[in-house]
Write a structure and sequence with these properties.
It contains 14 helices and no strands. The protein is mainly α. The two termini are about 30 Å apart.
């Protein structure tokens, strides 16, 4: 049996066993559902089984095929200087010949927030306390995902000249792009802090938990970025299709409007949008002073790990064919 089929078999068995066990013994309160027999209960328990299965499958596969996985980790350590050099190059290139330079990382989210606040404040300010903080909190998380996945998508094609000349682990390119976007996220977070202080929003100890939703978004973006960077090598039209998809996702994520204005059916459908959960988690710990429960963490972990495993799997299975299409 091939390694891929073996991994699929391990995951399938673990998922079925986990799902049966969870639906039979899990307290309904864990998934925040009042009806143990509703279809949403079964969907939510499937998310929990998915998280458990992904983690256990990765652990078992690593133990069984340690000799197969270790070279990848060794390459990552060996080419770490190149990785940081690529991140540094992206950061320098972004602000090259710019008068304000790195200040644009602060000004860009602030100016965007200012424009959107002026446009939407009259509609939603009464429904959303500290509207600028609410808006910018969603904007920097969603903006990081957009920037990371867009830049990672074209990273392999952009690194074609290097790939054709010397041996370089191809995953270095999408990873470097996502890390570069993470650096920009840190600067955007400084802008968020400025707005937080300026608007007089209340401080809570839960603010210290802000790295958690950022980590979830980073892992999710890395997985999506690796998947897109693999697919776009063979289908260049994905670049244009993904741009349209991001536009639709912008309006399907409550960045500038409260989710409470949506009908119940649409709000339930919103639960299938990973960015909604990451944005809501960030706002909960920074603006609302609440700690998301076990269920919300399970959802975020499931989306992040699922995207990462699919992205890494797609990238690894197709990387030997890239050279023929670059």
């Amino acid at each position: 049996m091939s390694k891929k089929k073996q991994l699929v078999a391990i995951f399938s068995v673990l998922f079925i066993v986990s799902y049966i066990f969870i639906t039979s013994y899990l307290p309904v309160s864990v998934v925040e559902d009042n009806d143990a027999y509703s279809y949403m209960f079964y969907i939510k328990t499937a998310f929990i089984a998915l998280s458990i299965s992904l983690i256990l499958s990765a652990a078992i596969f690593t133990v069984l095929h340690r000799a197969f996985i270790m070279p990848y980790l060794g390459n990552l350590k060996r080419f770490q200087p190149l990785l940081w050099q690529l991140v540094k190059r992206d950061f320098i290139t972004r602000y090259k010949r710019s008068v304000l330079g790195v200040l644009w990382s602060l000004l860009s989210p602030l100016l965007t927030m200012l424009v959107m606040t002026l446009v939407f404040s009259h509609l939603f300010r009464g429904d959303i306390p500290y509207f600028p903080v609410y808006l910018l909190g969603g904007q920097i998380i969603f903006g990081f995902f957009t920037e990371a996945t867009n830049s990672a998508m074209g990273s392999v094609i952009g690194g074609a000249s290097m790939i054709k000349k010397v041996y370089v682990p191809k995953y270095i390119f999408p990873v470097s792009k996502v890390l570069s976007s993470l650096v920009n996220l840190c600067f955007s977070f400084l802008a968020f802090l400025l707005v937080f202080v300026f608007t007089g929003a209340p401080w809570n100890w839960t603010f210290l938990l802000f790295p958690i939703p950022m980590l979830y978004t980073f892992v999710f973006s890395l997985g999506v970025g690796m998947f897109l960077s693999s697919v776009v090598v063979f289908f260049r039209d994905i670049t244009y299709i993904y741009g349209i998809f991001l536009t639709a996702l912008t309006y399907f994520t409550p960045l500038f409007y409260p989710v409470t204005i949506l009908p119940d059916g649409v709000r339930q459908a919103m639960g299938f949008n990973p960015l909604y959960h990451f944005v809501d988690y960030f706002r909960s710990v920074t603006l609302y002073g609440t700690v998301p429960g076990l269920w919300e963490n399970i959802v975020c972990v499931s989306f992040a790990l699922c995207a990462l495993f699919v992205g890494v799997g797609a990238f690894q299975s197709q990387q030997d064919k890239y050279i023929l299409h670059l």
